[in-house]
Design goal:
The structure is a homotrimer of 331-residue chains. With 331 residues, chain A is α/β, with parallel strands linked by helices. Helices cover 39% and strands 14% of the residues of chain A. The first copy, chain A, has a 5-stranded parallel beta sheet with strand order 7-6-5-8-9. A 4-stranded parallel beta sheet of chain A has the order 2-1-3-4, with helices on both faces. Chain A starts with a helix and ends with a helix. The N terminus of chain A is likely disordered. Chains A and B meet through helix 3 and helix 13 of A and strand 2 and helix 4 of B.
């Protein structure tokens, strides 16, 4: 399966979407599509990674993302090993590198790595390459840097929803509102790359503390005209095709970047009234877990006419199968 | 295998034994019997749930019950995902519903749910039905309400022990003493339904603080004459065929419902002397883990002539295989 | 596979190397060798333990050793169950015996046990035998007593490195320096048995607080001339073929057995200068996790010309597959 598309895959690691090019997004979407089909069968397993070991190294704990990767790996018939920071030997004075090398030496073929600190997956990948191993690294979220698999599952959710006949520039002419804690969000950062690469215009909305003026300069210049910043939510939502909300970390309050969750909801929360500013049948996304009544009003979140949140979770397994498959079978 | 018996299975979820009828108990016992046979083979696996996902959502942690369900699922060739409250995103403000919906969207076919609060598995099951999903819910213990799989494994242990030729009313004429913290025990509540439904007469024994007068009124009237309450242990044990002891939670002491573990043992602990009040060859059960020297004297617990505790644990895997099989293959 | 060698295997449990004889070491090394070959294939699984259950009972938590056993079991196609002390019902007043009996009753075929207290795996094994079960026990580290699988993976690492044509007395004429906290190390204790049994001369080096005079008397007299104690590191390293370092537990400082990590490193840490005292191309081992800059200087640890640490981890999976295979298939 998916043999034609994957012959082109050249990235041994999935670290960041900053360096993803259009053909890579397209291959990924097509591969995920074929796994989506597998997942609709009664027997949802394929032998693609049989005998391979996927180690989930979650130095920052996460039940949801870890379960999604674990299930994706199992459905590819890989064996899985779970490591979580709390039960780790890090307390014993071992470095992160040493932990990664230990799992490498045990025979892990792919390491899925989440870490509180930006850049950790990159440095581990560089070390694996320097040691001339075949170990593949997949960034499952590093600090405030990137969270590629989340942005790719968001993209795949939009792709599925639009039932596009081809992934090529499938978001051209679409307006996506991206609302929330842009500054600190690794999800936002990865999404900016993927959404603009697929042709969307992205309107960002957040209070100035969470969306500083300097932010726009971070994207490649070629994408700058696809990216518009707002400090009010209304212009971002106006005529939007999709609203992507970001999770608000409660520590933003103690950091004095926001006065209160209530005030945030009043100014930037997505409610039924605000959703009416967007196009009819606008769809709302959220990477989860949602703070109900903060980023989104509770009724809107539970309305299957509006929310694509469950579809995002389902897409997550297909997209992660595709990622593991692409890096696990490329040479 | 077991194809004849299971055509009749109509319960999509296992939430409570209150609504179980005799044919359901009988189907369950027969199905568990056939899995008991599988477990005696060298290769103890069957492909019944291949490709299906069993998610163990233990909002209240439990190694023993979770391991038993996990092993049952693996022996049916299902893939398993484990979630435990402590490592959860609940701390992040997600509701229990949202967690369940996340695992549903990932593709879980069966969710085994334990929660400190009574009714959580029911409300999740109702939500799954409302959303018209095929997800099955299995209550692995909810607050002080019910613990169906424990009562069913107890029942299966008695069934095996008696080598009855048919499960139909196989406990008719048998006296079961149920001793301990009846009031707060979800195990007791489930057992009262199953034991009386199979024809047993159940004698309950506990101090008045743990067995209030009002308790007897909770059972359906048709069973009332099979249920006798005692505030002393001796009449409950007299001529009993089986003694089922309940685990004493240490918080009962801080709640001032009991003076001390020692006094509890003196008045209600099962010792060799007390066991002599019962029928010759009386068998003792306990859901585990046992507080040695509190509910049962240590020597009695270790005496294979008296104790069925190991058989209960073994029955647990067979009964849970049967439950997962019945709800996982019914349509 | 490996059918010829294993016909001779008679040990149902792996509890200690004190009672290992030369033929057992040789069978183990040959069996591990054949699994090493399996691990070099694309599909690294064999069906040897299909349908069997390996329960990892880690009363003392360890990510690294537990992952190694888990992977070894999965590659033999066994099902695995993980239990860790922290999430246990031990807090509920259950004894260790009761936990082991619970996993036995669930159907565990092999229990891999780690416990803070010396002797726990032995007493559980004795109980399993007394109960006439077929359950096999594998000691994964008990207090300061033994850690057989670690010493055997060390031995296998040396065997692989030397590419000996036969395991028989393959360390004859070799000098091994064993440096560090000999007194408290279960790894050291197991290594002394295995290294001397294979013919090596072992030079121990540690400060007197960690290597008391009485220590030498613990080994069987027949090995005494293969064992030389030093309170300075230089004579131990001189002309050594291998340097095995031990992990320094930080609690040794609070126990007032060592002044500081820095002083320990100055007197007993392996640096490039010190390594020059040994033979050219000396190889350094460490059971991990390493306190970088304490037991070994960081540059030396990362130098693939000097360090066998990664090979040790890789050997761990092959050796544990061999151990599980030998005890899981012997009758």
């Amino acid at each position: 399966m998916t043999t034609e598309t994957t012959t082109a895959w050249t990235k041994p690691h999935i670290l960041s979407l900053e360096t993803f090019a259009a053909p890579e997004y397209e291959t990924l979407l097509e591969t995920a599509d074929s796994f989506r089909e597998v997942l609709s069968r009664r027997t949802k397993k394929v032998p693609a990674l049989q005998g391979q070991v996927v180690a989930n190294l979650f130095f920052e704990p996460s039940t949801r993302t870890r379960s999604s990767f674990e299930l994706a790996a199992k459905r590819l018939s890989a064996d899985t090993l779970n490591f979580s920071g709390s039960s780790s030997s890090l307390a014993k004075g071992e470095t992160i590198f040493d932990t990664a090398k230990t799992y490498m030496a045990m025979g892990a073929n792919i390491m899925v790595i989440r870490h509180r600190q930006a850049g950790v997956p990159h440095t581990i990948a560089a070390e694996m390459d320097r040691l001339q191993t075949d170990v593949r690294i997949l960034n499952a979220g590093d600090g405030q840097h990137e969270h590629p698999s989340q942005a790719l599952l968001d993209l795949f959710t939009l792709y599925q929803w639009l039932s596009s006949s081809s992934p090529h520039q499938f978001l051209a002419g679409k307006k996506v509102a991206l609302v929330g804690d842009i500054l600190h969000s690794r999800v936002a950062r990865s999404n900016l790359y993927s959404l603009t690469a697929m042709g969307a215009t992205v309107h960002l909305a957040a209070p100035p503390t969470l969306l500083p003026k300097a932010f726009q300069g971070l994207l490649p210049e070629s994408y700058q005209d696809q990216l518009i910043c707002h400090w009010e939510i209304e212009p971002a939502l106006a005529e939007a095709d999709f609203i992507m909300t970001l999770r608000l970390q409660k520590e933003r309050m103690s950091d004095h970047l926001l006065p209160s969750l209530r005030e945030y909801h009043q100014r930037f929360g997505i409610t039924r009234d605000r959703a009416r500013l967007a196009k009819d049948h606008v769809k709302i996304l959220h990477p989860g877990p949602v703070n109900r009544g903060v980023e989104i009003s509770s009724d809107l979140m539970d309305d299957p006419e509006c929310s694509l949140i469950s579809q995002q979770v389902a897409s997550g397994v297909a997209v992660r199968m595709a990622l593991l498959y692409l890096i696990g079978t490329s040479s």
